[in-house]
Design goal:
By secondary structure, this protein is of the alpha/beta class. Helices cover 26% and strands 26% of the residues. It has a single domain, classed as Vaccinia Virus protein VP39 (Rossmann fold), CATH 3.40.50.150. Its EC number is 2.1.1.171. InterPro entries: DNA_methylase_N6_adenine_CS, RNA_MeTrfase_RsmD, SAM-dependent_MTases_sf.
């Protein structure tokens, strides 16, 4: 697993042993970021200088990819101990400690936070954690009113309605949906 593009292109990332963490594959991340950059609702302004939230961060590949491509800051939420170790190691490998905050927390029970314009949610498949996290993140101030939310689920899972659907793509076992936050903060 590596950073696909940007300042840290080619930088190798580590992941914890075992099957507890399911990092987003390089090719899926490449396709996702291509979509974010080239869609009519996306573009460079979506990433450059953005505040990003990478919830269910695992190895941090999505958030680190965003930093590599120009995001200003990423907050990573992860609760699993092994994944937290890999996440912190990957942030250090990218020399991104000044641009990253790691919260050892459950994204469905987050602390109050600052509004982010780009949200990555990559929860364990089949547990309906995405919609629960979106509700909790809205309630605690993490989602800007027009935030772009990227949700990765299992391909066979029904896409939950969490805002205005902008795009949906299948990649192997994964389904990636992109939403615009439709709820008002608070």
């Amino acid at each position: 697993m590596r950073i696909v593009a940007g300042t840290w292109r080619g930088r190798l990332l580590t992941s914890p042993p075992g099957l507890g963490t399911r990092p987003t594959a390089d090719r899926v991340r490449q396709a996702l970021f291509d979509m974010l950059l080239h869609a009519p609702w996306g573009g460079r302004a979506l990433l450059e200088a953005a505040r990003v939230l990478d919830a269910f961060a695992g190895t941090g590949a999505l958030g680190l990819e965003a930093l590599s491509r120009g995001a200003a800051h990423v907050t990573f939420m992860e609760r699993e101990k092994a994944a937290l170790g890999a996440l912190r190691e990957n942030i250090a490998r990218c020399k991104a400690t000044d641009q990253a905050t790691v919260l050892a927390t459950d994204a469905t029970q987050p602390p109050p936070g600052k509004a982010c314009s780009l949200i990555f949610l990559d929860p364990p498949y089949g547990q309906d954690l995405g919609p629960r996290a979106v509700t909790a993140l809205r309630r605690t101030g993490w989602l800007a009113s027009d935030a772009i939310i990227v949700l990765e689920t299992g391909r066979e899972e029904a896409a939950p309605e969490i805002g205005e659907l902008l795009a949906s793509r299948s990649h192997g076992a994964a389904q990636v949906t992109v939403w615009r936050n439709a709820a008002r903060p608070g």
